[in-house]
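sry for the spam today, last one i promise. struct tokens for design, 200 residues
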């Protein structure tokens, strides 16, 4: 049984019927994925559920410890490079939030295991690389998830809807952590344009 709270399904722990599930929040950079993750986690906390938020250890763009959005909203978290490292702690909680899920090597196995044990797992992640290729672990998670949404950002060049992430620099590595100094959210048309052509 679930309680509905502003579009977020809350497991009804009062009668012992907890059904785990996976919620997947996708989108390009600057689309509000982390904001949505924090919003959902806070609502579960209001429902008196035990919540754990996990952040990628190498992501220290805004805060070394907390999960922090681009506009500096934050929530306390624990850091990890692999989710298996926090599994014992996760088992003490009802709801587990994972930020930057594309960077963890074991996101799929961890989320599936936790959900099958009766926990709610919320994963916020990029669905595609700066080359518009899928993050394999996230694409594998889609058919295992009960809820999947893809958010859009605002194109930083023409200000229309943006579904893609464009890298500004010349780095070729897949994992280059950064914010507006390294990436732009862009629409389909602007993805192929020079960032210098940004609309004034």
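last one done:
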């Amino acid at each position: 049984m679930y309680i509905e709270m502003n579009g977020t399904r809350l497991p009804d722990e009062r009668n012992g019927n907890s059904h785990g599930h996976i919620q997947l929040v996708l989108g390009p950079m600057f689309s509000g994925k982390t904001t949505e993750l924090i919003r959902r986690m806070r609502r579960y906390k209001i429902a008196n559920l035990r919540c754990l938020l996990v952040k990628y250890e190498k992501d220290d763009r805004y805060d070394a410890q907390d999960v922090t959005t681009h506009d500096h909203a934050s929530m306390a978290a624990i850091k990890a490079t692999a989710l298996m490292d926090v599994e014992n702690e996760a088992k003490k909680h009802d709801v587990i939030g994972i930020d930057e899920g594309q960077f963890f090597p074991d996101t799929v196995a961890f989320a599936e295991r936790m959900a099958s044990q009766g926990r709610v797992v919320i994963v916020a992640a990029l669905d595609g690389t700066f080359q518009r290729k899928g993050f394999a672990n996230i694409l594998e998670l889609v058919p295992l998830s009960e809820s999947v949404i893809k958010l859009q950002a605002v194109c930083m060049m023409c200000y229309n809807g943006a579904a893609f992430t464009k890298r500004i620099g010349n780095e070729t590595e897949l994992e280059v952590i950064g914010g507006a100094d390294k990436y732009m959210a862009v629409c389909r048309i602007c993805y192929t344009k020079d960032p210098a052509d940004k609309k004034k």
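The chain has four helices and 14 strands. ok im logging off now
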